[in-house]
Structure formats: structure tokens, C-alpha cells
Amino acid sequence: MKEVGLGLLGFGTVGAGVVRGLQTNTELIGNRVGILPVLKWIADVDLDRDRGVSVPTAILTRDAWSVIKDPAIQVVIELIGGTRVARDLVKGALELGKPVVTANKALLAQYGAEIFALARKRNVDVYFGASVGGGIPVIRALRDGLVGNRIERIRGILNGTCNYILTRMEREQMPFEGALKEAQNGGYAEQDPSLDIDGIDTSHKAVLLASLAYGFHVPLAAVHTEGIRRLSDLDIRCARELGYRIKLLAVIKRVGTEIEVRVHPTLIPLDHMLASVDGVFNAILVQGDLTGETLYYGRGAGQSPTASTVIADVVDALQNLDASSAQRAPAMPNYSGQARVRAMRDVKTRCYLRLSLLDQAGVLARIAALLGEQDISIASVLQKEVHSGEYVPVVMVTHAAEEYRFETALKQIEALDVVGAPTLRIRIED
Amino acid sequence: MKEVGLGLLGFGTVGAGVVRGLQTNTELIGNRVGILPVLKWIADVDLDRDRGVSVPTAILTRDAWSVIKDPAIQVVIELIGGTRVARDLVKGALELGKPVVTANKALLAQYGAEIFALARKRNVDVYFGASVGGGIPVIRALRDGLVGNRIERIRGILNGTCNYILTRMEREQMPFEGALKEAQNGGYAEQDPSLDIDGIDTSHKAVLLASLAYGFHVPLAAVHTEGIRRLSDLDIRCARELGYRIKLLAVIKRVGTEIEVRVHPTLIPLDHMLASVDGVFNAILVQGDLTGETLYYGRGAGQSPTASTVIADVVDALQNLDASSAQRAPAMPNYSGQARVRAMRDVKTRCYLRLSLLDQAGVLARIAALLGEQDISIASVLQKEVHSGEYVPVVMVTHAAEEYRFETALKQIEALDVVGAPTLRIRIED
């Protein structure tokens, strides 16, 4: 059987998963596609740590560049992470005409434009299926399975850490800090969790999904990004009472010629499919003009699921090498010169507002008046009883209005003497 | 831009959807993949009926063979349905070295072995993404996205008509006949609904999924197939009380070296993802050894969703033509010479039994004894009150046992004088 030589850069958790996955299933893959992937080099700075997978020491090296340059290496797998070393190595491999498989969403969200352009120039492919959705083949679905559709909307739970924390906060009525600590102890969150909980990882993935769906490079800076730090278990309980759950969502939506791309905590109706996605799972709901809504669900991170998608990309690379069909399916089509990301101020949503108000007559009327001046109308109000302090939390659900209206109204509301703390605002997707 | 000529055979509902989809999105597709699909011929026996889509009469013909033979036609789309004419035309196109896109699961389930063999021999591709799951790109997910996984299990709701009927029976507490009539009036069921409600359509799709997952041609005759005709609204209510919903499921499962492939009504726990799939929607749960469980959900039938997947296959064909990469990804890999479908008698499941028993002392004990002789133990019993007749329905949920044990026990039970009617048995998937 034909063989193709692979060089793996980065022998971390996912890297070890790819090695194990290939060890287990190489024969099966060969049977299925008629080509055998053969791992010839593994490069990492740390060659001593036990990864729970056994490899011949002869294929281990600290020199990633020598791996890229070795003529026996036909496909380069980049699983180093970060954007400095990885960027140079990915570009180096592409310059040498070698296809690259990567799970590095941070790299592609920041430097995708130059990387995809270089790949086109060198007539070589970049595969990034594992950058979004872990073990869920959603990038393929969007690139291939839905290629005939104009994409109307994508909504996704794309970060397992945040979803785990929110699920625990809801189930155990835990505060954010406690759920975060638990996630860290369980290995579901990093010691420095900011990339996840501040929504940055989700916005990297949103950039890739949006760029792929709409055919232009969505600048990371154009993505409105909020994390989950400010959410309290009170918000989760109030949302529940109102018939919603709170999820960190990436929302990508066509509005005329503009594209909304935003990442923020979101109230989702309890009976919505995304509301029942719990724990570390991810789910992506894609609406096409022909296919309607389709959902993709599975493990969004973790060693083996992510390795599954890396290996799928490796097989795609093997097949394109074997058929000499580089750039057969453009990794990242670029055709919408005039499309642009909608300014956040123009984005229109319903909102959940948690205000801290003095419990006295006439206060609600003043709030309603300020909202009304901005054409924001109130759909429902929920006032929670409290037993201490003079300020009480009051929750309002509004009808749809533009961001700038909320900004203006909330600034005026915060200046009132009856308001005890900044208002927490969470957008709603119905 | 490069152009590829398409010939469409069959201008029915899905055919018209493909025409409209191409009319709407050809430019977008061209932008995405750099090749334009151009519809050059539409063949159908009926050229007069209004399909709600306008095409130049010059491209309409009654002569499907002339379409296949026209050198301007590079890709043939077969949407005629049935297994007689379609079989000849598909084979004719392949003989001429032209790739075929088809949504014809009946054809491939029955004649797939010869069709895929011919395609290999002629070094040309057959694309059948729209044969399973309508607008859900699940065939692609299985072929490409999960190619690195050993597939442990697939469970799917694959027939929208049955799922619609079962959903209506549950929601409206309707008998089967009423729900079927409603489905027919609403256009969700054919006037002769047997292909759907007897599970045949689902078993065609199960053959394709199982063959693709396990690399051997699963004979249609080896698939145990039961439909939903015998289900009553009483069963649906009893199941609900016991914490289950009833769905027509395709179950495909690796058990050692054998593969279970079966289609039957199934009790699914209420909190399971498949239990919440309602109406005409489809969902497929695929478990891989690396990726774990992934779910694919969307519209499993209908004009535009099915057209979406047909068009995705057309694009795959365009790309392979353009890159001269025929047979780049084998349509249906065939490598598991020794695998075989497990005999139904050896399949082990838990079961729901609805017995019709005389309401007198000692009857349950006699039933339990006969089940016990076959090592079938009872997990729970539900006796419904009735107000007329001497026989009462008694529902039992058992622990897992092999089919042959149930067959033996139920035969003995039916011979008892205290049993008023044959026992209805529904398998359970947990």
C-alpha cells in the first residue's frame, strides 16, 4: 500500500492523542482509503515527559525545522499551539510546498489571512478541522456538506470549559468562582483560564466559522467578545424562572450585506436544542437557505476527539497528495470583498437586564421611562425578594433594540441615585 | 470560470429543488470552489407539469439516455427513484465514465454492490450523500470527518414520515390510523405509505450507513426490519409513564466481529438526545472510538434540504473532475471480507412487553415463570386500569436477553389460556 510520511510538531495532549489514534487505527484507515499514514518524526521541546503512549525514541527530536525540511515528511501536523513558533513553522512548511494540518485556532484567527494566502501561492493545503468543535466534523460540514447553501446563521457553543462551568453553576447552584475552581481541579480549565472564560477562544473559533461561511477574512478585532466572569448564580436562577438557560454563544448572522460576529453569554429558551447541551460538550447550529437548520454535536475538546479530527484532516491531505489534487477544495475561500462585520452598536437583540434598585415607589417607572426614551420596551419584570440591604435585584426582559440604545439608556440609568450597582445585561437569542 | 455540464434525470420534487437551488446559488458556489455547475439537460417522462421553477424548454427532454450520452454532460444526477430504470441509467452513465450523483437509497441498498464495483472498474465516482438524512451531511461525516475512527455504533431516526406520525400520536394522543391520515393530508406521507411505515426506507438507509461504516456490503435481506403499524397510542402513553419515548430507530452496532443492523420501533429514555427529535426531523448519533458520540440533526427529507445535499455531491464531483482525482475518496470502501451481520436471534436487548392478560390472581406469576425459564428477568411492571372487557393490558420492562429467548418465551405465553392477544414487544435502547 502507498505510504505518506507525517511529521508531528508538538507532543502535548492532542499530539499524544494523534499518535495513539494512528497506532490504533492506521490499518483501518489504510483499508478505507488505500493509503497508509506513517508517522516519521515527532518534535517537541520536552522529550522526557511520559505521555502514556509508546513511540520509538529514534523518531523523537527537539528540532522542528529539521522535521519540516526532511524530504521523507510529506504532511506536517502542527499541534504546538501559540502564535509565535507555530506561525513560523507553519509558514516554513507551506513555503516548502508541504500541506499543514493544524488545530491552532489562535494562530489562524490572528494570522489566517497571510497563512491562507501563502498556501494559495504555493498551491498547497492548510487543514484546520480540529480548530473548531474538537471531535465534531463541523468545519467539513460547512466547507463540503453545506457548500450549496447561503449560510443565514450559525450559533455555537464552542468552548467546553465555559459550558462546563455554566452547567455546574446551574445544577449545583454554585457561584462562578466555585465552579471555576472545580473545573480547574477536574482538568476542565487551565490554571490561567482567561483564554476560555473571557470568551477569547470562542471568538477565535467564531472568526474561522464566519470566514469560512462568508468568504472573507473576519478580523478578530471586529468580533465583539464577552466572557462569563460577571455571571452570577442569581442570573442563572432568574433566567431559569423566565424560561431560559445561559450559554456562552458565538453568534454569526447575515443581516443584509453585513455579518454579525459576536461572542457573549446568551439567554436561550429552555426548549431550544442548544439549551440542552451540557458539560464539556459543544454544539453548532447552522442555518442554510436550502437545508434549513442542521445541528452538529459532540465532544468539543479533549485528547481523542480532537485527535479524531486531526486524523481526518491528515487523511484529506493523504488523498490530495495521492491524487495530486492540492487546493482541490479551497481551505478558506475568499470572495466577498465587500462584506464586512456589522458594528456592534447596530446589532439588535432582546436583552435580560439585572438592575440593582432601591426598593421604593416610583423607581421602576423611572427606569421604564429611560428605557422608553430609547425605544426599548419591557416584555417582563421579575423582582426577587431579598432579606438584607436596601438595594434589590430587579430583572427585566426587553423587546429587541439596538446596542447603542441599550448603552445610552444604561448609562443614564446608572447615573440615577436609586441605582446601587452597574446593570448586568445579557443578550437573548430566541 | 471553468464550467461543468450537468444532466438531471428526474424532474420531481427533489429534482425541482436542485434546479431552484442551482439557480439561486450557482454564483456563490462558483465563488467558493472556482468551478461553475451548469445544468444542460433535464430528462423526465412528464414535461408539462408545473414544478414551480422556470427552466428553458430547450433543456427539457423525455430521453434520459441521450442526456447521458451527450458529451457536454460531465456529471449525471439521478433523481428518478425506483430500481429499474434508475439502475440501467446509473450503470449506463458509469460505463461511459461519467460520475453519478444519486439520492436513491432503494437502488443502492439493493444493487449497491454491482454499482460500486462498476464505478471502481471504470475509475469513476458515485455520490450518494442525499440518500441518508436529507439535508444532514451525515454520509460525508462518516466517510470523511470520522474516517480515523473505528465506528462502535450508529443509531438514527432516519424516516421523517414515521417520526412525524409517532410525534403526533404522542402529542395528540391519537391512534396510529388518525396520525397516518393526518400525515397523508399534510403531504408528510405517501398515499401508499408502506415503504415508510413498514420500516423499509429506514432499512435501505441502514444498509448504506452500515456498509460505509464497516467496509462490506450489508445485504438488505440481513437487516431485521419492523415498522410502526402495530404501535398504539396506549404503548406511547405507557412508554412515557415508564420514562421513555418510542422512535423508529436504525441500530447499527459492532459486537465483536459481527455487526448488528436492525430497524424497529425502540424505547429511548426521555432524557436521551434522540428522544427529543420531533416531527419530520432526522438525527443520527455516531459513536467512534476516538471521537466518542457525535450527533447530526436536521431535516431528513423535503425538497430543499435534499437538494442541498445533492448539490454538495455535485460540487464534490466538479472538484474531482477539475483535479482529475476520480476515486480520490472511495465512495464505498470494501475491505471487511470476514465481517458479517449478526443473526437477529443472537441480538440482546432489553424489551418492553405489552401483554393482554386475564385480570385474575396468579396470572403474573405464570408469565414471570415462563420468562424466567428463558433467563429473562423483569425490571418493572405497569398495569393499566381498564373499564371494559375481561383482558387487561399489562406492560413489563425486562432486563437484557437474546431475541431467541424472547421468541421462545412469548410463544409459550401466547399458548396460555389467560392470554387474550399476541404480546407486543418493543426493544429498548439505553
Write the topology of this structure.
2 copies of one chain form a homodimer.
Chain A: E1 2-9, H1 13-33, E2 35-43, E3 60-61, H2 64-69, E4 75-78, H3 85-95, E5 100-102, H4 105-121, E6 126-127, H5 138-145, E7 151-157, H6 160-172, H7 176-185, H8 194-197, H9 200-214, E8 224-225, H10 233-241, E9 244-255, E10 258-269, E11 281-288, E12 292-299, H11 303-322, E13 340-341, E14 348-358, H12 363-373, E15 378-383, E16 391-398, E17 401-402, H13 403-414, E18 419-428
Parallel strand pairs in A: 1-2, 1-4, 2-3, 4-5, 5-6, 8-10, 10-13, 10-18
Antiparallel strand pairs in A: 7-9, 7-11, 9-10, 11-12, 14-16, 14-17, 14-18, 15-16
Helix pairs in contact in A: 1-11, 3-4, 4-9, 6-7, 12-13
What does this structure look like?
The structure is a homodimer of 430-residue chains. With 430 residues, chain A is of the alpha/beta class. In chain A, 37% of the residues lie in helices and 27% in strands. Chain A contains 13 helices and 18 strands. The first copy, chain A, has helices at 13-33, 64-69, 85-95, 105-121, 138-145, 160-172, 176-185, 194-197, 200-214, 233-241, 303-322, 363-373, 403-414, and strands spanning 2-9, 35-43, 60-61, 75-78, 100-102, 126-127, 151-157, 224-225, 244-255, 258-269, 281-288, 292-299, 340-341, 348-358, 378-383, 391-398, 401-402, 419-428. In chain A, strands 7, 8, 9, 10, 11, 12, 13, 14, 15, 16, 17 and 18 form a twelve-stranded mixed beta sheet that branches. In chain A, α4 runs parallel beside α9 (200-214). The relative contact order of chain A is 0.13. The mean pLDDT of chain A is 96. β12 of chain A pairs antiparallel with β12 (292-299) of chain B.
